Amino acid sequence: MIVVIAPEKDIPNEIAILHELFQEGLEYYHLRKPFKDYQQHCDYLDGIDKKYHDRIVVHLHHELINSYNLKGLHFQEQMRIDHIDNPGQYFKKFDMYGKTISSSFHEPKVLEACEFEFDYHLLSPVFSSISKKGYEGKGFDVNAIDKFIVGMGGITDKTIPETVRLGYKGIGILGGIWNMENPVKSFLEIQKQYERSWNEQRKTSLRNTAKDI
Prior knowledge:
213 residues; alpha/beta
């Protein structure tokens, strides 16, 4: 599972690049635009071909899920703290049938202890962030946590093998795409390395299982 996070501020040709990423197989695009209001989110979504809307997860303005055929909703940490203790009350105003619900975490213990059953969890920073200066990686090992966890922070084609070894079932990328000279080429390289790393991990697991028999 590969999640691409939107750049906070729009970059030149962003929508055209995003269409290319979708065409190359991007299935999870997290729309996180903290400087855009509700109408600007609508304008952004209106610029994207409708056939890709069901690959988009919104971080802000969750009510967009009632107007667009989106993939799901994401809770940033503070939003989760504010609302998820009473999820029935929060979700009753949204049409959530078939939609995903995910959240961000910054501490493995908090993630493990969370009682709400999210479809997946973004945990960061695994490595030092490319897009946020001074955001040092923690190298969290999540092999012992039985939840679907996506590793974020400093994810590039170079750090993917270690991310898989640390137990992450998916990767989340921001700077590794949008800070690169050619975002689409970077995505394709990350895609190949991710598949290669997973195949290596499966072979290692099979070898270890065979030794135990």
